[in-house]
Each structure stands twice: as C-alpha cells, then as structure tokens.
Specification:
- The strands form 2 sheets. Strands 1, 3, 5, 6, 8, 9, 11, 12 and 14 form a 9-stranded parallel β-sheet that branches. A 5-stranded parallel β-sheet has the order 2-4-7-10-13, with no helix packed on it.
- It is built from 2 helices and 14 strands; from the N terminus they run ααββββββββββββββ.
- By secondary structure, the protein is mostly beta strands.
- The termini are far apart.
- The protein is globular and about 65 Å long.
Length: 196
Amino acid sequence: DTWPSQVANALSGEVHNVLTQADGGTLTIGVLLAVYFASNGVESLRVQGGSNPGYNGQMAGGIDISNAAYSWVKDIQTGGSIGGMHIAITGSYRVVVRDSYVHHSAGYGYALDCYGVVVRCASSENLIENNIVRYMNKPVMFNVSGGGNVVGYNYVDNAWAEGTWQETPVDCHCSFPHMELMEGNFASKMGASITH
C-alpha cells in the first residue's frame, strides 16, 4: 500500500524543509504532526479487557480510531471482557480493519453497546475485510456512517442479546447508512434497525 500523493508530497516536502533549512532556536514539530495525523496503524496486538470510560456509545472500550485518515488495524485480537465497542471508527476516512479476531463482550444486555467493529459518525471510504467477528450484540455496525464503506469477506456470527434473543450480525443504527458495500461476508443476516 502506498500513501496518496496529496499526503506523501506534503510529508516529504516538510521532511526536506526540516533537514535542509537552518532555523536556530526553533523546535520543529511539523513533521511529527504530519505523520501523526496522516496515517497511523496498530498491528499484532491483543486487547483483553478494557471499558468505555464515558457513557454507552461515547467511545470504544478496545481500539478507538477518531478523526483519522489512512490508518489501519491489522492482526488484532480483542476479546473477553471489553465493555463498549471493540473497534470504533469515528469521523474517519480510509481506515482499514483487516485480518483480526474480534470476540466476546463484557455483557450482552440491552443498550450496553457491546458491539464489534463500528463504522460511525460520518466515517467514509473505510474497509473492513477478512475478519472474524462474533459473540456480541452487534458484531458489525454502521452508526450514522458517511457512505462508501466496504465490509467484505468477514465471518460474522453468534450475535445475541441476553437470553435467547437473536441479534442481527451486520446492522445499522440511527440515520440510515447509504452507498455501503457488503460483499462476500458469512453472516446469518444483515438488517436495518427500525428503532432508532
């Protein structure tokens, strides 16, 4: 994968300026900020436990990607006692979540936001691919998403709430998602909420 030219050119130009222009007594953090905001990734990590420190739905209990672009989550395992969303993509653009195992929530009660991978708050053009997401209320969720997202070739199963109530493995909340592509997933069903 390569960075888009609008990110790569700006970053390489900033690196060039820092390395070639003398500016005595000035601490230059432009390169660090450009790298920080342009792309970040999390790879080969296991997250066990964790909780949402705010109200339900505020943020993830596991990995929270907010206001990011060109970032990624790869080869991650979240499980066990995570309260809240395992992986939340919030207000972000072109984030990739792939090759990960997201499983088991801290609770399965109504309105606990024990969700797996959530694309929300105008996030657009994100890719959720080749993951195993199971044993939670809503394994994959669109929540006021921004369109152009792809959920492809994931194994999504065992969605349930307290007792024996079968949940929808790929679902949406709040304003309707639009122009989303769901392709090649193994899931018992996909649906749209009529309660929000």
